[in-house]
Design a protein that fits this description.
- With about 160 residues, this protein is an alpha+beta fold.
- It has one domain: Cytidine Deaminase, domain 2, CATH 3.40.140.10.
- A six-stranded mixed beta sheet has the order 1-6-5-4-2-3.
- Helix 3 links the parallel strand 4 and strand 5.
- The longest helix has 15 residues.
- Tetrahydrodeoxyuridine (THU) binds next to strand 2 and helix 2.
Length: about 160
């Protein structure tokens, strides 16, 4: 028998960065600094990510493109792999993400791509604690989810292996 199931998710939408708690505003400011260091000569779309660890350290990443396009990497994975490589035993509390384009205004929140969600999901499972995600554009609304799995239902993970 077929049954239909509904998957619910909750997002919080803030009108602007200034409505965020102070510590998250500061994390988002780190994401802006990271964004300024993006290497995006091909897309002209610059993304910055900043994560805060349980010991208070902040790890930043930006997208790094390549003339061989698929060899580039998104900001979120650059940041989370840097955290995994440099602080392997520190839990990640939150990630802030921001994007800007040299070609057009980015006024909508820029959500992490599917591959980055999968990568972040791995660390959420590894640390057995949810990771808060905050994402925005260059200005305007900010979306907050309290866990990566809220934006990746039915995730594939190592329990299937
Ligand atoms: N990009 C990110 O850094 N994060 C995302 O979640 C979406 C896309 C980058 C990859 C590429 O350098 C540029 O944005 C355009 O896709």
């Amino acid at each position: 028998m077929m049954i239909e199931k509904h998957i619910n998710t909750t997002i919080q939408v803030f009108d602007s960065i200034s409505e965020l708690p102070d510590d998250i505003q500061s994390l988002m400011q780190n994401a802006v600094e990271a964004r300024d260091r993006a290497y995006a000569p091909y897309s002209k779309f610059k993304v910055g990510a900043a994560l805060v660890l349980e010991n208070g350290s902040i790890v930043k990443g930006s997208n790094q493109e390549n003339a061989s396009y698929p060899s580039g990497l998104c900001a979120e994975r650059t940041a989370i792999y840097a955290a995994g490589a440099n602080y392997p035993n520190q839990k990640i509390k939150a990630i802030a993400i921001t994007a800007t384009s040299e070609k057009h205004d980015v006024l909508e929140p820029i959500a992490p791509c599917g591959a980055c969600r999968q990568a972040i999901a791995e660390y959420e499972q590894k640390q057995d604690q949810p990771i808060h995600i905050y994402f925005t554009g260059t200005s305007g609304k900010v979306i907050h989810v309290k866990a990566l799995l809220d934006i990746l239902p039915l995730a594939f993970d190592n329990k299937f292996l």
